[in-house]
Specification:
Strand content of chain A: 15-25%
Shape of chain A: globular
Radius of gyration of chain A: 22 Å
CATH superfamily of the largest domain in chain A: Alkaline Phosphatase, subunit A
Distance between the termini of chain A: 23 Å
Number of helices of chain A: 14
Largest sheet of chain A: 8 strands, mixed
Structural class of chain A: alpha/beta
Number of strands of chain A: 13
Mean pLDDT of chain A: 96
Low-confidence stretches of chain A: none
CATH architecture of the largest domain in chain A: 3-Layer(aba) Sandwich
Oligomer: homodimer
Amino acid sequence: MPEFDLMRRLHRAGRQKVILLILDGLGGLPIEPDGPTELETARTPNMDRLAAEGILGQIVPVRLGITPGSGPAHLALFGYDPLTFDVGRGVLEATGVGMHVAAGDVAARGNFCTLDSEGKIVDRRAGRIPSQEALPLVERLAGISIPDVEIEVRHVREYRFAVVLRGQGLDPSLADTDPQQTGRAPLPVEPTAPEATRTAQIFNTWVEQARSLLSDQPKANGLTLRGFSTNPSLPQFDEIYGLKAAAVAVYPMYRGVAKLVGMEIHHFEGESPQDEFAAVASAWNEYDFFFIHIKKTDSKGEDGDFHGKAAIIESVDGALPQLLDLGPAALAITGDHSTPARMKTHSWHPVPLLLWAPQTVRPDNQRSFGERACATGGLGTLPATDLLPLLLAHAGRLNKYGA
Amino acid sequence: MPEFDLMRRLHRAGRQKVILLILDGLGGLPIEPDGPTELETARTPNMDRLAAEGILGQIVPVRLGITPGSGPAHLALFGYDPLTFDVGRGVLEATGVGMHVAAGDVAARGNFCTLDSEGKIVDRRAGRIPSQEALPLVERLAGISIPDVEIEVRHVREYRFAVVLRGQGLDPSLADTDPQQTGRAPLPVEPTAPEATRTAQIFNTWVEQARSLLSDQPKANGLTLRGFSTNPSLPQFDEIYGLKAAAVAVYPMYRGVAKLVGMEIHHFEGESPQDEFAAVASAWNEYDFFFIHIKKTDSKGEDGDFHGKAAIIESVDGALPQLLDLGPAALAITGDHSTPARMKTHSWHPVPLLLWAPQTVRPDNQRSFGERACATGGLGTLPATDLLPLLLAHAGRLNKYGA
């Protein structure tokens, strides 16, 4: 992308730090037309102060009207147009749990499921078995071996795992085996391009052996595979922006997308916003850029829990002084996409954006952080891919273009 | 660019006049988050009336977050995407002082500097010697001759001059010789591509002779060269927009960029806004389009002089009735980029835009011309390259697209 060339050419070394704080699925909807959204409901005195001192706007993750998955939405936040850079879900998940996926390897997400006596799915998530039940089953699967290839399996969370297939001449052009409904058997692995025929055969052999190893299980006696993909060899974040970047995220997928763009995963104990911000503090001197990912705003949105989502936002707001005390030169608070509790799912609505930089931001007239304030904020409505250049500029980490 | 093809296809002849009034570095920042900017501080009754009757918005010169130099910023105002059209500073400066730079010639900016006995720079601007001291030195340099090439030297202002090298097989791929700091000697002219090796040798020979001619000088006993470049053969303004265009500017560089896109330079006496507007009046019947450039807003911004910048804006506002009396069909008042006094330098912040057209503009709710009003103006935030089509449309100089 020519924008990357511009960043490569203009980025400037410095000690100023940049924070990108992502509240997953932040954007919401009011219950009643004239009522507040989740973000507008939440009491957020810290964010409101930053909104008054800083500038608001709203970002469009992919294109207007397009509801993004988490992978494309995060790529966009990092400046990678998701219509140009296609990253599969399998490689995101596998990378997120620390597996190495080289270009040419094929990664997939796996779900345990419950099959009836005819082999039809009765529960697509195997009763959401807890991690301690799933772990030994993943270990069984790890014992499968197939000639000429290497297969690595790793547990992700509850009923979910990741598989990486390594060998010569593999191709990820394969269709998901999850039929997306109960009452149907898992589909065989089918190639969507002739080059992937052999890869499909290998995966089908593996699935057959796995089924046999799981046949004694009451809940997790079957599995489905999704998101077959390889490492897309993305241009790397530090090379583009000149920033050494750390990702502070609890969930594997977000670590995965951060790692694929070249960020380092900063490991830490705990799951709360306080824990995540403390992790940032502990690594403050080692990095230029911190991507912090808060998952539960999205989870509450998907649950349809309007007030639960507002409460998560309040908990982030309460912990915010920890982050501000570190003295970032520029801070953005936004989401990867909207997940209105009212819709219980991701949506296409633009995402509220708060940009704060004590030395350089041009304030607008807004006084609080919320969807309506952001829609008339001074930054206007912008593509998510423009956020990183704005952050770098506000942190004094970009040189002038032309004389 | 496809946008140019659209303009070529749709532009319409007419007698309606268009004015583009540029206050260089217009955009600013408040000193305190809730305080006014320079433009918001300035008392501007005329602009405020136009703001009430017209529509506001803000323009992004190059891309969000990108701080432009004056060359790219002006190209963008004229509709030329500066990432597509690259114009060197040397050709801008040389063209601005009326030198002819053909495609294949190599132009450069020159600075006199002060060297110590070891040849190291002690003052990069030769004590900012006044023009009357520099002029005879430029005449000395003009006497240098080198076989097979023609070298023209012309004084620009104070310690600055321009050089144009003409001949066969020249190439402008040369690095600046200004080391950008004192205590170091000027660098030799180095080629950045093998094709420019001979051109570098010629310039080095010229510099050597120049040094010898300047050796008796107390202040201007050395020189540096920057911005080596040739004529980029830009598509021409009248051919794209169907407008005969005049540039009214005091400073050479802005005349240079106007001339490179094919505008005619309208010469006049004086430097004040009144002088510039009187120049427009004197040429009113000869042109369709007037680019007026006010430099001092930027100069005051670079000096960090917040109130001085506001005073310049007030002086432009005071003279504005002169311009309005001419009866333009469409008028835009904006800047090429922001130069907040608080930052003392160009910045990436969007630039306030006021668009006024008595017959055709759709007013918004804004009542005064300022950054906050513009950020929520009816035009929204738009690329600078969209301004010319908007001006032509409001002046009735564009046909309908499609039936």
